[in-house]
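Let us work through a complete example step by step.
Step 1: write down the sequence.
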Amino acid sequence: MLAGALGEGGELCVCDLSWIAERPENLVSHHLRTLRSAGLARSRRDGKMVMYSLTERGQSLLDATLSEDTGSA
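Step 2: predict the structure and record it as tokens.
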């Protein structure tokens, strides 16, 4: 869900992703840290906010996963 939101939204903060996922910010932050560790997401600081986006590798994996889901339906 987070990767999908980042794929559609481009760049989002934890508070936006928390609202989209309907999950607490600390849980979303934990999952974003995992995506970053795997090289699928990146972050950048914008003032007090940290903005997240998918890396090229993350976007490619998301696209491949979504095309598999669409093709099997």
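Step 3: interpret the result. The chain has a mean pLDDT of 91.
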